[in-house]
Amino acid sequence: MDFADLREYQPGDDVRYIDWNVTARMDAPYVREYMEDREITAWFLLDLSPSVDFGTVDAERVKRSVLIDFVTTLARLLTRRGNRVGAVFYGSRVERTIPALGGRNQVLRLIDDLTRQPRLPAAPFTDLRPLLEAAQRAIRRRSLVFLISDFIAVPGWEAPLAMLGRRHEVLAVRLVDPREEALPDVGPLILQDAETGEQLYVDTHDARFRRRFGEAARQREATMVAAFRRARIDAVSLSTDEDLVRAIVRMAADRKRRRR
After folding, report:
1. Residue 48's domain is classified under what CATH number?
2. What per-residue confidence (pLDDT) applies to 43?
3. Is residue 118 part of a domain?
4. Is residue 225 part of a domain?
5. 94-102 vs 84-90, strand pairing mode
6. Of residues 105 and 204, more confidently modeled
7. Same domain? 85 vs 63
8. Tell me, what DSSP letter sits at residue 59?
9. Of 140, 49, 138, 142, the residue nearest 97 (C-alpha)
């Protein structure tokens, strides 16, 4: 915070900013105004577990490719204005931490490491707690934090997410695909759990099955929304069938509306 100016006290001003020396000379209360340091440090907490390799739209545009495109765009936008970006990668465990730095080379390093991150054929069911705990250790100064995940994970991430949100400005970005919410009527299918490898035969001709699938998806959505609300964390969705630029504009507009 840099000192910017002095002005006469107005009701509602923070009394901690009263300049008592000037107040004594002017015989009226005056407060100091400050100009905030505009440099932002942004961190990307990236869930790269097997379930983010699922996708059914636009020639198998998977959630991982949406994640990479989103991080690339945001990182470049931030560093162009002199800000710094860092990242923590999670696969089956916390894989690596990239310290926050600025500049074009930092973005290139981040994206190169991200594209080189191997896709796991299987892994233990995702646990986001180690990712959030690693972020708490790595991020020292107050930062803008993007937690990017499909949140298909074991319970327990809510408390460490809330703790992270008390120190930083956190935005949860949910990666979603339309087929996770509704199944098409395409006949018999074999579905495979991306993380455990377990397979299940289903008949999508069965309207009752499709209805139960949709109800389960809506219940999962309601549970997740409630979890973010309890953690007091803003959350937005990023779908494999959505234009990225429009999605970013929508996110910015939603955030602006919430702050009013």
Report:
1. 3.40.50.410
2. 97
3. yes
4. no
5. antiparallel
6. 105
7. yes
8. T
9. 138
Whole-angstrom distance, CA of residue 42 vs CA of residue 251? 16
Q: What does the pLDDT look like over 158-199, one tens digit per residue?
A: 999 999 999 999 999 999 988 888 777 778 877 766 666 677
Domain containing 144 equals 41-181+231-259
The DSSP element (H or E) to which 189 belongs, if any, is strand 188-192
Q: Is the pTM of this model over 0.85?
A: no
Distance CA 49, CA 179 (A): 18
**Cβ(217)–Cβ(148) below 8 Å:** no
Chain-centroid distance of CA 127 in Å reads 16
Q: How many domains does the chain have?
A: 2
Amino acid 182: pLDDT: 77
* Same domain, yes or no: 6 and 63: no
Specify whether 15 is located in the same domain as 122.
no
Residue 8 has pLDDT above 60, yes or no: yes
Assess contact for 56 and 240: CB atoms under 8 A: yes
In terms of domains, do 123 and 13 share one? no
* Same domain flag for 29 and 67: no
Going by pLDDT thresholds of 50, 70 and 90, the confidence category of residue 204 is: confident
Burial class (CB in 10 A: 0-12, 13-18, 19+), 210: middle
Q: What is the number of residues in the chain?
A: 260
